[in-house]
Amino acid sequence: MISTRRQFIKISTVGLGGAAVAASSLKLAHGTGLFGSDDDEQINDLKNKRFPTYCEVCFWKCAGWTHTNDKGEIQKILGNEKDPHCYGRLCPRGTGGLGMYQDEDRLKTPLIREEKGGKQVFREATWEEALDLIAKKFKKIKADNGAESIALLKHGTPGKHFEHLFEAFGSETVGEPAYAQCRGPREAGFAATFGSWIGSPEPTDIRDTKCLVLIGSHIGENMHNSQVQEMAQAIDNGASIITVDPRLSTAASKSKFWLPIKPATDIALLLSWMNVLIYDNLLDLDYIKDNTYGFEQLKEHVRNFTPEWAYNITNIKPGMIRKTAREMANAAPAVIIHPGRHVAWYGDDTQRERAMAILNGLLGSWGKRGGFYLKEGFKVPKYPHPKYPHPKWTWRDLAKDYPLAGMGLTQEVIRASIPEESGEHKVKAWLVVGTNIKKSIPHQELVNKAIEALDFLVVVDTMPMDIVGYADVVLPECTYLERYDGIRSATNREPSIALRMPAVPPKYNSKPGWWIAKQIGERMGLGEYFNYEDFSEVIDWQLQQIGSSLEEMQAIGVKNLPRKSGSLYFAEGEKVNLPTNSGKIELYSTELAAKGFDPMPLYTPHAEPEEGFYRLIYGRAPMHTFSRTANNPHLTDLKDKNTLWMNPKVAKLWGFETGEEVYLKNQDGVVTSFPISIRVTERIRWDAVYMIHGFGHTNKKLTRAYGKGACDTEMITNVKVDPIMGGTGMRENFVTFIKDSGKETKA
Ligand SMILES: Nc1nc2c(c(=O)[nH]1)N[C@H]1C(S)=C(S)[C@@H](COP(=O)(O)OP(=O)(O)OC[C@H]3O[C@@H](n4cnc5c(=O)[nH]c(N)nc54)[C@H](O)[C@@H]3O)O[C@H]1N2
Ligand SMILES: Nc1nc2c(c(=O)[nH]1)N[C@H]1C(S)=C(S)[C@@H](COP(=O)(O)OP(=O)(O)OC[C@H]3O[C@@H](n4cnc5c(=O)[nH]c(N)nc54)[C@H](O)[C@@H]3O)O[C@H]1N2
Ligand code: SF4
Ligand SMILES: [Mo]
Description:
This protein is an alpha/beta fold. The structure holds ligand MGD (2 copies), iron/sulfur cluster and molybdenum atom. One ligand MGD is lined by residues 58-59, 182-183, 215-218, 222-224, 244-247, 249, 261, 263-264, 266, 340-343, 345, 617, 619-622, 624-626, 690, 731.
């Protein structure tokens, strides 16, 4: 909307109303056993109430109860006992979700970018004005370039409401970081093997497993609630854990075997495990004959991939490779080679996931107790609305170079927004909701170019995150504790549904996502798609269709539904019948072969760091979710910045000690905005350094997060794109250390 280059605007330049709130309510929350367990403190006062919700602090969506006191203030959030995602307990982030509501740095009122004295600033606006402007701009862009040229970048629950709005006006130009930057490669790799996506939550029968193999996946720091609880249970039951990780993760520290692999070489290890299982006769050949396709080809394929061959590549000793292969075979079929979740690592990620899927196939764990259960979902009836128009092109056209792309690729939507990079289909405007693409998309150069080129950018967020500063219009959404959202329908051992409803009215001048989408829709002449006054009517209608009601769900929060698809596992001797081309587990992928890719995974070497550089790897901290919790008053109390894990050998070479601060500089000469303090530890190999993702915020308006720690995304300028499904491999970046930004210290 502004013709000149779109400048980042610090929200702090405008006076925002209503800032006086939080101090008192913060104190209140601290005295309430916020981080205590669920039965810590019973609320007896009849005036105290609880309202069902499901958590939005991460995407596991645990169901819980928001408790309010007699003044109607939120006291605490506890898990719902009946919820299979949390078994009655929230993780520290879920309990601290209250901080999202209380954060005094929240977005408080709509903002519109304008030019004042040659400078771009935000001015406060009414909802009326902001929504009118958006509808006017969207209508104009639709008339000039087609509805398809307006793209939706989204993540999390509010995305759904805007997806409906976009489909109603004719755009399926959509992307979310939870695919290409996260779990896309495993969906493609497992689908090529078993015919279906893994999905969320993963149908891993961890509770009953005898052997859990974690390739990187760092459950325990990755706090996916029910998985963490089930892993603890499995360990108590004597299950053995095998963790393959260049770092001694929390999971590795609880494991029977820790394989400190050289980063980027996992495929070699996986192939050598196949070699041992096949050539040491550790497999059930009758099962393989009945249920798999391509065993003979696989056998030939892995003939030379011996543990001795893999040792030279991975640094894992042949004896250890043989021993762990036997451990898996002894546990089979109650064994899980866990698919992981954030798997966009090195660009050959679909093939690494294929190798993991093949191992599960060989060991017979698909559809078996202690392996992968046969999940069952539940389809919530669709609230009636007119048919969506057919867009002329969609995200699929933007992803056409990646034959197995199963969802919109954020980076391709971004590329299509840059005139000199885009092809036939051009993107002119974005609506960004619930995703902070300044932190979650690698290759920020592209993101910045796209933002500059856009005609119009709307951001719907709860916090003044990095992306907000680039918006033409900012819309403040209220937090999940203050709104209704769609019914959470979950695939687990048994299906279940959960309700989210407001426990308190929206604070400041913020509004729920459903309301914002409806308001924009109505202003664009799409009112018939939003045929309700309040979203609770939609939910009630849907629940009535299935013999429940809003009233019932308000009282119980979670409803567990009976299985309809039959048993949780295949019966003894029952043959698999899968939606693959062959109907069997495809050890040799007919689909990959048909699309011109290697039908069986191969190891290819990756770039090595130059002298004085170390591979940058990253992960999660139990008390934070990406950048979304970096300013949360309760969670910053627990941890307010990340550190750089460094092996003592490296520290000695450089003369560094724990606590010393350094800037990082990557292979392309990019330096971090802030320094990061070193943590010297034996828990990481010498050839890599490790940090938690989500820190190093550059926006001063995030008063607790600003300048704390460093941002991994800044260092990720080399992106290895997966040719099969378009995942953005982010771990082929190398860093060195400088004491002052600009001035190098010598090793
Ligand atoms: N607390 C918390 N939990 C979360 C999240 C959060 O933000 N906070 N986010 C959630 C989301 S969306 C996701 S996708 C998941 C991600 O969680 P995971 O799927 O567990 O994440 P990964 O990135 O695969 O795993 C990081 C681990 O990989 C190791 N690693 C690095 N390079 C290599 C390598 O070359 N080989 C091997 N074998 N290991 C390597 C790192 O040392 C680190 O321990 O976490 C989820 N859970
Ligand atoms: N460098 C690097 N990049 C990564 C990863 C990594 O480990 N390292 N991990 C990747 C993975 S696995 C994933 S899944 C993605 C995640 O990527 P994102 O989804 O972009 O993750 P967040 O940083 O949490 O950004 C969420 C945004 O939503 C806002 N928000 C929170 N709650 C609400 C709400 O209720 N309504 C609205 N409207 N907004 C809300 C937050 O303020 C924040 O701006 O990142 C990927 N990118
Ligand atoms: S795992 Fe934690 S943060 Fe994620 S939804 Fe559950 S309680 Fe919330
Ligand atoms: Mo993710």
